[in-house]
Structure formats: C-alpha cells, structure tokens
Amino acid sequence: MSRDFLPIVYSCLVFAILSPFSAESALTVGFYSTTCPSAETTVRSAITTALNGENGPAASLIRLHFHDCFVRGCDASVLLNASPTNPSPENNPVFNMRGLDLVDAAKTAVEAICPGVVSCADILAFAARDAFNLLVPGGSLYDVPAGRRDGNVSSFLEAVANLPAPTLNLTQLETTFAAKGFSLKELITLSGAHSIGQAHCSSFQSRLYPYDSTQIDPTFAQMLQGKCPQNATVNGVVTQDFVTSDSLDVQYYSNILNNKVLLFSDWALRTDPIAVTTIVSYSTDNLLNILWRPDFIKAMQKLGQLDVLTGTQGQIRSTCGAVNP
C-alpha cells in the first residue's frame, strides 16, 4: 500500500481469480519447530543486523509482504528478479521496491543453518512481522503460521492488475480489497501502515498542481510543493507521516481527518460515513494503539494466508531472487 506499500501504476482492476483462504488450514504456527527450530529467530536477527540501527527501512518489508500476497498469493513471487526467461516480473522498477536486500540477508542466514528447508515466502512473512515489532510502539511479535512454498511465476502485468493504486477512490479500493476477501474495516486497518515509510512525489504530485483545499490542507500542500517541484527532473521521496515519522502508529488516522496525507487513496477513506467512524475511533486511540494494533495483527495474519502454496506445490528456492534450476 503506500510508496512503501503501493505502486504508482493505476490498476486496471482486472483481478486474478483467487480463493483467498483455500490453504489456510495447511499453515501452522511453529511449522519449522523440528526441521529448523531457530528459523524465526534467525530471520529476526538477520533483519535487525542488516538494518544496522535504522529501523525506518523495515517499513518496506510490510509493503513487500502486502505486494506479494495481493498478486499471486503469498508465494514470494515479488522477490523474483528479471531473467532471460522472464524479463518482466513483479519486481519492476516502476514499483520502486525496497527491502529486497533485507530479505536476502535473512535467507542467507537461514540457508547457512538449514539449507533447502525454509521458503522465501515464509521468510518474508516472518520479516514483515519482525518489522511490525520494530516499528510499533511497545513492539509485538504476533504468531505467524508457516508452511508456505515458493512459486516460480512472477508477472508485472498481474501486479498492475491486482495491486491498489494511490489514485483509487473508495469504491475502487473496496472492490480491490473485497476481491481478496477483505472488508472495508480491514482495508482501513491495513492502510495504517502508511504511518511509516516514504512516498515518491509521482504518486501524489497530481494533487498539488493545483491543490484542492477541501482535500489537502493548504499549509501541508505548500510544504509538499517545496519538496516536489512541478517540473522537477528527479522523482523525489517524501516522508508519509511528518508527526511520528519513525513509528508505526495511529497518527495516520488523525492525518486523514486533518487532510494531511499524501495519497488520494488515503484521503478517499474519509468520503464514507462508515469508514470515518473507524478512522475516528483509531485516531483517538492512545500511543499504545490499543484498538488498532490487534486489528492490524489480525489483518496481517489473514493477509499472510492468501492463496498460499503448500505441501508439494511450488518449491523451496535456494535464493529468493531466482527459481531453482
């Protein structure tokens, strides 16, 4: 979702036919308890080491997991690099993917202790959970059922067709999320990830020239114009939340109500009275995110079970960027 969670390409709203929870029962908490007992702690340690004290980039891991699961299900297809046989995978430069190096570091660490055992799809799910733990006030290591296998197909066109874009209105967003089995409230809950990370100017610049004062606070718009000049030759990067920029929290919801969000799709959430009720309830949450945090965890656990490959399906990739020979 965001520039650390959303693409800049407008979705044509052509959706893959998915059965969102067809393999839910096949995933289990502690899946690697006998085959690789330290898999989850190894991923966490590798991610923390690779971040080197800068937790901000961890937001990209949540976006990667979202991107992965929304396109072909949670099968690590988003991690596959371009190759002679597949020159246009999901990992297209237009999406400005970050965090791939973090996943690679975790995969290398796990392969060193348990070669050929832990899938890249599971590593990405663990890493997204670990990012949440690092970024949310007070931390939270929620359970992540595992047992996913890696896919060998990755398509840029499928990504464009399935991912929500920052230009969507609320009706289009609801349609996009409903196609994956998510309610309006879950859409709003997952959008809370926009309280961390950055967005490229290109994803919201059309809102600035000219800006609509009923949609974007004038002072905020003028500040953004200074960071994203109209005729700039470089696609700048802007912090999503200027109030608590290093924390994954409920400030995002106050920003929506104050017309201080970057993306049109964020502002669009306030155009429905039912949606506003949820936004207001989250915005009045305290710093520990008592209302939003459990809802976000449940939504992430549900996200992580979208159309997974299990059993003998797919493969366990040796490296996350390429299918096995």
UniProtKB/TrEMBL annotation:
Catalytic activity: 2 a phenolic donor + H2O2 = 2 a phenolic radical donor + 2 H2O
Recorded GO MF terms: heme binding; lactoperoxidase activity; metal ion binding
Main location: secreted
Residues noted as binding Ca(2+) 2 in the record, renumbered to the chain: 241, 244, 249
Protein name: Peroxidase
Location in the cell: Secreted
Active site: 67 (proton acceptor)
Assigned protein family: Belongs to the peroxidase family. Classical plant (class III) peroxidase subfamily.
Keywords carried by this UniProt record: Calcium, Disulfide bond, Glycoprotein, Heme, Hydrogen peroxide, Iron, Metal-binding, Oxidoreductase, Peroxidase, Secreted, Signal
Disulfide bonds: 36-114, 69-74, 120-320, 201-228
InterPro entries per UniProt: Haem_peroxidase, Haem_peroxidase_sf, Peroxidase_pln, Peroxidases_AS, Peroxidases_heam-ligand_BS, Secretory_peroxidase
Ranges where the Plant heme peroxidase family profile domain occurs: 26-324
GO cellular component: extracellular region
Binding site for substrate: 164
